[in-house]
Design brief:
This protein is mostly beta strands and 162 residues long. It is 12% helix and 39% strand. The chain has one domain.
Length: 162
């Protein structure tokens, strides 16, 4: 544990995996993982089979973490572990501290699968997008999934991207 804490404090690359939930056999069923790379962080939220349903990227700006990118992934159903290539849709919002942003949608169920729809938007850069870098082990500030990519972008941007 001391080595992991030292690695975290030195801004080394490391991954933290949630092991709070276990199945009947005692095997951990992670709900999230956090990947630290230097000062930045990527949080992946997992369904009960281990598929990523949301990814949140935090970028370090002036010593704090900015919730810059939210990506939501939809699979055919929740019956099994789906591979990333089996996605039905991917919705990604990117917000910058100046309030500018973009919403990108890939919907593989449309007539022309693989078509990306992009919309630019202006949002009010909110204090809610900022998170202080947590103390080692205090991951709660990063492990709440927060708003979806559509919600981050707002109704107007989502409608224009469709």
């Amino acid at each position: 544990m001391a080595a992991a804490e030292q690695l975290y404090e030195s801004r080394g690359a490391m991954e933290v995996v949630d092991a709070a939930d276990v199945d009947a056999a005692g095997t951990p069923r992670p709900r999230w993982t956090i990947e630290f790379s230097g000062c930045d962080a990527r949080v992946r939220f997992l369904d009960r089979h281990g598929a990523v349903w949301r990814q949140v990227d935090y970028r370090t700006i002036d010593g704090r973490l900015w919730r810059q990118r939210v990506s939501d992934y939809t699979y055919p159903d929740g019956s099994r572990l789906w591979e990333p290539s089996e996605l039905m849709s991917e919705v990604e919002s990117v917000v910058h501290p100046d309030g500018t942003g973009s919403l990108t949608i890939l919907d593989k169920t449309k007539c022309k699968p693989g078509t990306w729809l992009v919309s630019q938007f202006s949002a009010r850069a909110s204090e809610a997008y900022w998170v202080d870098r947590p103390e080692f082990g205090g991951w709660a500030a990063l492990t709440h999934p927060g708003r979806s990519a559509h919600e981050v972008a707002g109704t107007e941007a989502a409608a224009s991207a469709r």
